[in-house]
Write a structure and sequence with these properties.
Blueprint: E1 6-8, H1 14-18, H2 23-31, E2 36-39, H3 47-55, E3 60-64, H4 85-92, E4 121-124, H5 137-148, E5 154-159, H6 166-175, E6 181-185, H7 188-197, E7 200-203, H8 207-215, E8 220-223, H9 225-230, E9 240-243
Parallel strand pairs: 1-2, 2-3, 4-5, 4-7, 5-6, 7-8, 8-9
Length: about 240
């Protein structure tokens, strides 16, 4: 009888990939060998996502041209409002308790705070699930109220080499009307360092939230109340979720 393998089909975004990032490790722990292949039918939004989440993952067996398991097409995703998102993913792929709590990355961090952010409150609301967050006035008003009452200097992330984001250009100045500092980010590796070393990290409900959850023990995220109640991309850790 041949070895069991799992061909994993993933989606394009950073959060889409990170939501199943624990599956290769769970497979290894269950069967004793690397048996998860990442399908090249996956359409990564950019090469940085593929490298960070999968090329660096020591538990994948490699890549395959075969189409992988697509949990959406197979109707496997369940929303019970109780199970946090990583546990939900691990259940879908047939693993038992104990379940993971947050996404995982395997990244070699610098020992030093090379961007000098240890005393900074870093804010990234440049991305979101636009259908449910940033394009709704009542969501933006709740976020604005939070920043109006935050008694700390904040530093907003400014991404270089990235296509203009509607939510940033249209909404950030509406949500944050106070004086701010900016920090420029050139690539995802720099961003990982900044997220890890900053004093506080505040983000929108998107891939940035998933990335920070894989790096930090604490974060603040603006989560649409509908998603929070579903436990959709809500992680089982002591994070501050502000329902909007």
């Amino acid at each position: 009888m041949g070895k069991r393998i799992l061909n994993l089909d993933v989606w394009s975004g950073l959060g889409d990939n990170l939501q199943v990032s624990t599956i290769p490790r769970r497979f290894f722990e269950t069967y004793g060998y690397n048996g998860v292949y990442i399908s090249n039918s996956s359409s990564w939004r950019n090469d940085e996502i593929k490298k960070l989440v999968w090329d660096n993952n020591p538990y994948i067996a490699g890549y395959t041209e075969k189409k992988g398991v697509n949990i959406v097409e197979n109707g496997l995703i369940k929303y019970d409002g109780v199970t946090h998102w990583i546990a939900n993913m691990e259940k879908i792929y047939g693993f038992n308790e104990p379940y993971g709590k947050v996404p995982e990355i395997y990244f070699s961090f610098n020992k030093e705070d090379i961007f000098n952010v240890k005393d900074k409150v870093i804010v990234d609301i440049t991305s979101s699930n636009e259908n449910n967050t940033m394009d709704k006035p009542y969501h933006r008003q709740k976020m604005k109220s939070y920043f109006d009452n935050l008694n700390e200097q904040i530093t907003i992330v400014k991404f270089n080499n990235l296509k203009g984001n509607k939510t940033f250009t249209d909404y950030t100045n509406e949500i944050i009307t106070r004086s701010v500092e900016y920090i420029e980010v050139n690539n995802i590796n720099e961003y990982c360092e900044i997220i890890r070393n900053c004093k506080k990290y505040i983000c929108s409900f998107s891939g940035n939230h998933c990335l920070a959850a894989s790096i930090r023990d604490n974060l603040t995220c603006f989560a649409p109340e509908m998603y929070y109640n579903m436990k959709y991309f809500i992680f089982d850790k002591n994070f501050e979720y502000i329902k909007i």
